[in-house]
Structure formats: C-alpha cells, structure tokens
Amino acid sequence: MHYFSGFSLQNEAELFAFWLPKSQYSVVGFSYGAIKAVEYLLKTDRRVDRLLLLSPAYFNNKSEAFKKMQLLYYKKDPQKYRENFLQNIASGSDISLEKYIMPSPPAKDLEELLYYQWNGEKLKRLEQRGISIEVVLGEKDKIIDAEAAKEFFEKYAVTYFIKDANHLLRSK
Q: Which of 12, 61, 129, 141 could pair with 148 in a Cys bridge, judged by C-beta atoms 3.0 to 4.6 Å apart?
C-alpha cells in the first residue's frame, strides 16, 4: 500500500489502521493526501486495484474569499493556524496528534489544498484503468463540508458516510 499524509501531518497512517488495505496494489490518501494520491495515480502506470480517499480535502464549494482568508491567516501566524487546524481535525475525540505533526509546511501546500478542483473526469479515468475508488467521510467533519463532498464523490466512488465522525473518522 502507498499512503499519502494529510496537511501538516506525517506517519499518521496508523490512525486509520481499520480502513487500510493490506494489498500492495492499493493507494490511500488522507485529507490533503487524497489530492496527492489522485494526482500520483494520474501520472503513474503502476498497477493499482484500489484507491481509498479518507476525508478528502474537498473545497470546491468554498468561496474565493474563504480561501484567501485561510491563506492570510496561515501566512500571518502558521503556528496558530496549525494549532487550530489540528484541533478541528480531531474535534469531538480525545486523539492526540502530537507525534504526527510535521515541521511547518509551506503556504503553497495549503494553497494547493484549498484551490484543488476535484474533477469527475479524473476519477473516471482512474476507474477506466480498473481502479476501484472508495471515499470515507465523517458527518461531523469541521474541516470540509462533508455533505457537499458526499454529493460530489458518490457519483464516482463507493462512498461511506460515518455518522458523528470527525475528520479523523472518529467519534467519541
């Protein structure tokens, strides 16, 4: 399995052990890592049978003003922004992310996350290659609009919507 981490995180795959496929022919991405996973698959001819997107960073429905404000806050105080961001990821659970926090990512990573446009054609191209796509979303996600993401992804993938779960797909 090839795993892509979320924004500001590293080595957090163990948090998703329940969901992770054992197959070497699988690719998994969490949040920002979901973007990286899709783009990786679009550029490789490596055999992959399954793509698993865990809480994909879906901001297609957010305004330009929202995106600019997020970037402004990050550039003003990256540490404070990340603290708030990480609290929102784990909201409603007692999970500590301390050991998974990476050194400050560049603002361009946040910009890529916010401005990435999920595109059904890209997902269809992966499906045409024989890649099974699955998406897992948490109903109480404070990072993305889970309902909007569900509405988009269920057209292209088997989509799981977990009641009362946060961005880490956990509830209390």
A: 61
Q: Are 16 and 54 in contact (CB under 8 A)?
A: yes
Tokens 């049978």 label which residue? 49
Q: Which two tokens stand for residue 67?
A: 């995106």
**Rg for the chain (alpha carbons), in Å?**
15
Phi and psi based region of residue 8 (left: phi greater than 0; alpha: psi -120 to 50; beta: remaining): left
Question: How far, in Å, CA of 147 to CA of 149, rounded?
Answer: 5
- Residue pair 82/157 in contact by the 8 Å Cβ criterion: no
Q: Does domain 2-162 have CATH number 3.40.50.1820?
A: yes
Q: Token pair 């910009």 is at which residue?
A: 111
Q: What are 85-136's pLDDT values in tens digits?
A: 999 999 988 898 999 998 888 999 999 999 999 999 999 999 999 999 999 9
CA 151 to mean position of chain CA atoms:
16
pLDDT in tens, 26-61: 999 999 999 999 999 999 999 999 999 999 999 999
Is the alpha carbon torsion for 84, 144, 104, 102 positive or negative? positive
- Is residue 137 packed enough to be buried (19+ CB in 10 Å), middle (13-18) or exposed (0-12)? buried
Please compute, for residue 70, the number of CA atoms within 13 A of its CA located in the half-sphere on the CB side.
Answer: 21
Global pTM reads 0.95
